[in-house]
């Protein structure tokens, strides 16, 4: 795996420095820059020669909080994968991930080993769930009144279901192509159609949809 270029956005200087030092000591991760708020992040992105692959973003900041900067990043820098770090993720992460398009929602108290795994998984596959989040997903799915994914008005084809299942199983377009003997471009075409048919906007939404519609089970997901 090539080096994953990251950026850290947090107004807690101690947290930022510790994270930067730890990540820069990893063989496959490098911190390109840090920022104390969304405004500073946008300035540094404009100055960057190469955009970061992943941004670690705090939600609560004094200037332009994580919710607002997420909206801007998804609009102006859609190639950047956003990982939100917060102490208040348990009750709100599912709706927030689906509606905002963030790739992961993790607590600041996450273990260093899991943090590295989360960054690598997000970089490779576009989404990462913690084990307790998987439990919350099950609870959401069991309560139909709380479901936030749109019901499909167009049935997925068997090939699209097959591809959706493999996406949920953390397979890349290249790996799916090899398994199904089709080109990665064809896989991407099917994935775009799946987004349209399911009404989802990101990988997190696709995974939830796949579980919700019994295309894959939570026990099958290699996400924790």
UniProtKB/TrEMBL annotation:
Record InterPro entries: CheY-like_superfamily (IPR011006), NreC/VraR/RcsB-like_REC (IPR058245), Sig_transdc_resp-reg_C-effctor (IPR016032), Sig_transdc_resp-reg_receiver (IPR001789), Tscrpt_reg_LuxR_C (IPR000792), WalR-like (IPR039420)
Residue ranges of domain HTH luxR-type in the record: 149-214
Residues with 4-aspartylphosphate modification: 58
Top-level taxon of the source organism: Bacteria
Pfam families noted in UniProt: GerE, Response_reg
Region forming the signal peptide: none
GO BP term, pick one: regulation of DNA-templated transcription
Domain Response regulatory: 5-123
Keyword field: DNA-binding, Phosphoprotein
SUPFAM superfamilies named in the record: C-terminal effector domain of the bipartite response regulators, CheY-like
MF annotations from Gene Ontology: DNA binding
Name assigned to this protein: Response regulator
Organism the protein comes from: Flavobacterium rakeshii
Biological classification of the source: Bacteria, Pseudomonadati, Bacteroidota, Flavobacteriia, Flavobacteriales
